[in-house]
Amino acid sequence: MAACAFLGDEVSGIGFRLAGVEVYCPGPQEAVALFRRLREETRVLFITAEIAAALPPDLLRAAELATWPLVLVIPDVRHRVAAPDLVAEVRRHLGMAE
């Protein structure tokens, strides 16, 4: 089982590849199947917000709520799709949103 994997675009994946992380850059038709497979094969899965937006919302939500593996949605280096604002989301869930 791989410790970490990255799922996203090639440019964003360069830094992860340099750090020794397995990098996957799927086409639109491959993203869902690869996401499901990597959830079974890794301990930590980094995905760009662009890939996250291409996944079925229920699938992504279930992955984010699961305790294993850790799935982290990150911005891509070009900021084409905004990553979720985790601080705002936590505040909203706690009833502290403004």
What is the SS-derived class? alpha/beta
- Rg over CA atoms, rounded to whole Å, is 14 Å
User: Under CATH, the topology is which?
Assistant: Rossmann fold
Question: What is the CA–CA distance across the termini?
Answer: 42 Å
Low-confidence residue ranges: none
CATH superfamily: ATPase, V1 complex, subunit F
User: What strand line-up does the widest sheet have?
Assistant: 2-1-3-4
Number of spatially distinct domains: 1
Q: Work out the number of β strands.
A: 4
Architecture, according to CATH? Answer: 3-Layer(aba) Sandwich
The total count of helices amounts to: 5
Strand content: 15-25%
- Helix proportion of residues, in percent? 40-55%
Name of the level-1 CATH class:
Alpha Beta
Strand and helix order: EHEHEHHEH
Give the overall shape, derived from the CA principal axes.
globular
Averaged pLDDT: 85
* Major pleated sheet: 4 strands, parallel
Give the tags.
single chain, 98 residues, alpha/beta, Rossmann fold, 4-stranded parallel beta sheet, 5 helices
Blueprint of the fold:
Elements (H helix, E strand, L loop, with lengths): L1 E6 L2 H9 L3 E3 L6 H11 E7 H6 L2 H9 L4 E5 L11 H8 L5
Parallel strand pairs: 1-2, 1-3, 3-4
Description:
The chain has 5 helices and 4 strands. Helix 1 (10-18) links the parallel strand 1 (2-7) and strand 2. Helices cover 44% and strands 21% of the residues. The protein has a 4-stranded parallel β-sheet with strand order 2-1-3-4, sandwiched between helices. The chain is an alpha/beta fold. The model has no long low-confidence stretch (mean pLDDT 85). The chain has a single domain (2-93), classed as ATPase, V1 complex, subunit F (Rossmann fold, 3-Layer(aba) Sandwich).
